[in-house]
Write a structure and sequence with these properties.
The protein has a single domain, classed as TIM Barrel (Alpha-Beta Barrel), CATH 3.20.20. It is α/β, with parallel strands linked by helices and 274 residues long. An eight-stranded parallel sheet has the order 5-2-1-12-11-10-9-6, with helices on both faces. Strands 3-4 form a two-stranded antiparallel sheet. Helix content is 37%, strand content 20%.
Length: 274
């Protein structure tokens, strides 16, 4: 079993300072949060950019500043979101890929997202996949519903993606696939055997699904985008606190935690395009 890759989803597009007073918003705050989660044991940081007032944005220049802040402070893998917020256009959503990050997210289908619709038509995800392939960016395929795996496999067959694939199973979003061990096991059974995968359990499901993934040989995402609580009713002090809990559990399970360079090797990241 490979070492455990821990991703910290630092910001998200939905969480507010009113809900989570410790949410990092400014690029320097996000950079500091990245350093803290790296020191706690994370090897990837997943980032949604925010404007000064906390609104979600896909502005390339804000992402550039975040990328620079993170690179200056620690060696984690920078993974920007191409999901953005549900109202962002396709052109806005793909701006961070122009920065040639090592990874970026790729959502391969449309689903309900609470009262909104997270729209990812085929033309969009083909465009996104092609752009990432041209720039040497490793896609993390975001799966909110089982059909998104089938769409990703068609992208692979049609040459938009290259094996081995890396998936992130996001379970527990209202309106999409629910968070359960049965659903996670079903999804893992659908992907090619040479794939790697991560699970993102939303809210109270975060730690439970992380423990299951740990023994199944998968990887784990935690952070304020998915869950703002350390325990029920107790708001977490930092993203690093959530990472540290996973590291403690992994130690009890006997699963070693991957460094950023070890994560790069596991994921088969390519040399950077500048």
């Amino acid at each position: 079993m490979s070492k455990l890759i821990i991703t910290a989803a630092l910001t998200g597009a939905e969480v507010t300072r009113e809900q989570q007073p410790n949410l990092p918003i400014a690029p320097d705050e996000i950079g500091s949060a990245a350093l803290e989660v790296y020191q706690a044991g994370a090897s990837i940081v997943h980032v949604h950019a925010r404007t000064a007032d906390g609104s979600p944005t896909q502005d390339k220049e804000i992402y550039r500043e975040i990328q620079s802040e993170i690179a200056r402070k620690c060696p984690v893998i920078f993974q920007p979101s191409t999901g953005g917020a549900t109202w962002h256009t396709a052109e806005e959503r793909l701006q961070p890929v122009e920065l040639n990050p090592e990874m970026a997210t790729l959502s391969t289908g449309t689903c309900n997202f609470g009262r909104d619709v997270f729209s990812n038509p085929q033309d969009f995800y083909e465009q996104a996949a092609r752009m990432m392939q041209q720039r040497g960016v490793k896609p993390e395929i975001e799966v909110f519903e089982a059909g998104m795996i089938d769409n990703a496999l068609r992208l692979l067959k049609d040459g938009f993606l290259q094996a081995p694939l890396h998936f992130n199973f996001v379970l527990g979003v209202p309106g999409a696939m629910s968070a359960s061990v049965r659903n996670l096991s079903f999804l893992v059974d659908q992907i090619p055997p040479d794939s790697t995968w991560t699970v993102s359990g939303i809210g109270r499901h975060e730690t439970a699904l992380a423990m299951v993934a740990m023994v199944m040989g998968g990887h784990i995402r935690v952070g304020f985008e998915d869950n703002i609580y350390l325990y029920r009713g107790q708001v977490a002090q930092s993203n690093a606190q959530l990472v540290a809990r996973i590291v403690r559990i992994a130690k009890e399970f006997g699963r070693e935690v991957a460094s950023p360079d070890e994560a790069r090797e596991i994921l088969g990241l390519k040399a950077r395009v500048t």
